[in-house]
Amino acid sequence: MLVSKPSKQDITKASMQIEPYTHVTPVLSSELINTIFKSELFFKCENFQKAGSFKSRGAVNAILSLDKKMLDHGVATHSSGNFAQALARAASILNIPSYIVMPENAPQVKVDAVIGYGGEVTFCTPTLADRERTLTEVIGRTGATEIHPYDNYDIIAGQGTATLELLNQIDNIDMILCPVGGGGLISGTALAASYFGKNITVVACEPLGADDAYRSFKAGEIIPSVNPQTLADGLLTSLGERNFPIIKNYVDNIVTVSEESIIKAMKLVYERMKIIIEPSSAVTLASIIENKVDVTNKRVGLIISGGNVDLKKIPF
Amino acid sequence: MLVSKPSKQDITKASMQIEPYTHVTPVLSSELINTIFKSELFFKCENFQKAGSFKSRGAVNAILSLDKKMLDHGVATHSSGNFAQALARAASILNIPSYIVMPENAPQVKVDAVIGYGGEVTFCTPTLADRERTLTEVIGRTGATEIHPYDNYDIIAGQGTATLELLNQIDNIDMILCPVGGGGLISGTALAASYFGKNITVVACEPLGADDAYRSFKAGEIIPSVNPQTLADGLLTSLGERNFPIIKNYVDNIVTVSEESIIKAMKLVYERMKIIIEPSSAVTLASIIENKVDVTNKRVGLIISGGNVDLKKIPF
User: Fold this and answer.
1) Where are the domains of chain B?
2) Within a 10 A sphere around the Cβ of A170, how many other Cβ atoms?
């Protein structure tokens, strides 16, 4: 079956068009961590990306891909997290309005960040139904174009540019580990690995307490995320309709990890690599800690998705 | 007056000989921080250096500069902090013994790190007198060569390599800001800026609660550090005899900063740059926050000295 998806050219084009507005993020390694796991691990540091996460790649690509006449009315989304900031920032680059629907319990620091980038925040109650209803109202009022955080091909192509970059930075990667939440990052990652790499194994990593992607992958159909419980607050959402077919066809495996391993992985990265990563980014190293993937003697890329974390709540 | 000091060739040689054993650390910038301070700030990230600080540069250089027959008996020092780890690691590279005298109240994590690198730890009471007495005993017993953490020309040349690297990485630096404790890093920095840069202003930054270098600089003679009080636990020591003349002749100014500004600077770096730095490293940005140096429209290098911090004690 032919899977609808961004093409190789879509990801190459995304990489070129976002380049003036995003960072080529560094790839870091730790000799000690490599020794512990008998492998060569390459951390692709999207925690250093603009607005603190890979979401800036997709957001900038989506906005730059809009028709000129759509731009005037701005863009809208609902998000409590990194995509809210990324979209507001991307809109501010083109000097167009952004309307962000946020749950009233969203962290103040994230609300402030959106406002700091010039976004207009509309609050709603923290349910998916009210988020969608409020977004529909905002779009009705403003004529803004909705940009979905992950269920959108321009977003997927944008997120794939992180892996395109990684493969330009590091030779002979055998495997890539990547977190999975809604599926924007993993679907872009898997496509880019297939287009620009050679026989790279792609593994999605997910918290056991939010294992809807794992269960969906096994079942062959999207199983929604219900009442997920995990520190990794970027990985709570259900898979998108456009993301799942790409995951089914281009991801080799999905593994789950415990909260304890997520915390261990965060601690190891903070203490040994001296970088700040959010819990969602720690699921990849956690899967190595738990021996869910065999990385022995392999060259492995780990997509560190972001660094937006409340430092008062570091869990160790 | 001719000042005794490492030559340009000494620093170039140090850079070449430590290269296989140390990292070329990245230089990071933050658009937001640049906007706040209307300048271009380049953070030289020695927090990513081997053993977590610039101390690895000097330690490796000092050991590689020893006579072969001195090597057999190993090296010794007293240190409660980053130099202990750096020297133990450097000794392990050449497979020679290292004897580290540590105060009995040194953090367990630092003791463990030294032992992890194969160092032999001898505990003493936490006074300078007992540290020196114990070190003399250890040297009498072992025949090891004492490597002073900063009052040593090979150490100074080694620390200067961070600035040599920075100037190769970033063009047209106008100013360099650098912490000052015992003076090893700042003296190497100032020499390297003079040898390899063009009209670079070098400013040493120091906590107000440990302002012995500031007072020594004003008085023209070394004034010992007495009962210093600061979060910046790497900057408690008095200036070295070999360091002070270099500082007097090659450093343009010394400024002091409050504890409040050190905390503000740490918070800004953690939240916006997503990197972990120790309080001692924050005095440079703190001096900008306090307007103690005028960086407007300048290209400024900040030496981020290390990242060894107890994450349970982050002061914000």
Assistant:
1) 8-53+153-313, 74-143
2) 16
Question: Which residues of chain B does A273 touch, with a Cβ-Cβ cutoff of 8 Å?
Answer: 48
Whole-number Å distance between alpha carbons of A87 and A83:
6
pTM (two decimals): 0.92
* Residues β-bridged to residue B99: B76, B120
Residue B38's φ and ψ, nearest 5 degrees, are 50, 45
Mutate to test the interface with B, among A29, A267, A274 (most CBs of B within 10 A): A274
Is A48's CB within 8 Å of B273's CB?
Answer: yes
Amino acid, single-letter form, for residue A19: E
Paired strand residues for B43: B28, B302
Q: Which CATH number fits domain B8-53+153-313: 3.40.50.1000, 1.25.40.10, 3.40.50.1100, 3.40.50.720?
A: 3.40.50.1100
Query: What pLDDT does residue A186 have?
Result: 98
- pLDDT for B90: 97
Name the strands in the sheet holding A75-78, side by side, starting at the edge strand that comes first in the sequence. Answer: A120-124, A98-103, A75-78, A145-146
> Which position among A80, A98, A194, A287 bears the catalytic label?
A80
pLDDT digits (tens, 9 = 90+) for B20-31: 999 999 999 998
Domains A8-53+156-313 and A56-146 share a fold: yes
Q: Verify whether residue A258 is a known catalytic residue.
A: no
Q: What's the pLDDT at A110?
A: 86
- Report the residue from B274, B275, B311 with minimal CB separation from A314: B311
Span B178-200, mean pLDDT? 98
Q: Which chain A residue shows the shortest CA-CA distance from B316?
A: A312
- Portion 40-99 of A in contact with B at CB < 8 A: 47-48, 50, 52
Residues in A closer than 8 angstroms to B270, CB to CB, are 276, 311
* CATH number, domain B74-143, options 3.40.50.1100, 3.90.1150.30, 3.40.1390.10, 1.25.40.10: 3.40.50.1100
> Which pLDDT value is given to residue A1?
62
Nearest-angstrom CA–CA distance, A161 and A56:
11
How are beta strands A75-78 and A145-146 bridged, if at all? Answer: parallel
CB-CB neighbours of B227 under 10 Å: 7
Q: Would you say the C-alpha torsion B105, B109, B112, B113 has a positive or negative sign?
A: negative
Q: How many CB pairs under 8 A join A and B?
A: 36
Both tokens of B40, joined, read 């271009």
Q: Is the pLDDT of residue B1 over 80?
A: no
Q: Is the pLDDT of residue B296 over 80?
A: yes
Contact B58, B159 (CB under 8 A): yes
Active site residues of B: 55, 80
Q: Which CATH number fits domain A8-53+156-313: 3.30.530.20, 3.20.20.30, 3.40.50.1100, 3.40.50.300?
A: 3.40.50.1100
Q: How far is B83 from chain A (nearest CA, A)?
A: 17
CA distance A307 to chain B (A): 6
Question: Please, which residues 258-287 of chain A have a Cβ atom closer than 8 Å to chain B?
Answer: 270-271, 273-277
Q: Which CATH class is domain A56-146?
A: alpha beta
Judged by CB atoms closer than 8 Å, whether chains meet at B307 and A274 is answered as: yes
Mark the ranges of chain A whose per-residue pLDDT is less than 70: 1
Q: What percent of chain B has pLDDT over 90?
A: 89
Q: Which of B268, B272, B274, B278 to mutate to test the interface with A (most CBs of A within 10 A)?
A: B274
pLDDT at A164: 98
Supply the ipTM of this predicted assembly.
Answer: 0.90
